[in-house]
Design goal:
With 54 residues, this protein is mainly alpha-helical. The protein contains two helices and no strands. Helix 1 runs antiparallel to helix 2. The chain starts with a helix and ends in an 11-residue tail after the last helix.
């Protein structure tokens, strides 16, 4: 990963955390964020069940 890619990832993380913080319904926003990341991981072939917490 080069510097520009890392900066882009960190901007996304920062923006997502702000969205959660500002949300009126934090649980719903967190669930939405999880769905988005889960879809992205699955599109790269990452098996989500291996990393889900109990």
């Amino acid at each position: 990963m080069n510097d520009k890619e890392l900066i882009s990832v960190l901007i996304d993380m920062y923006t997502n955390l702000q969205r959660i913080q500002k949300s009126d319904n934090k649980d719903k926003e967190i669930a939405n964020q999880i769905k988005i990341v889960k879809s992205k991981l699955e599109s790269f072939g990452v098996v989500i069940s291996d990393i889900e917490l109990d």
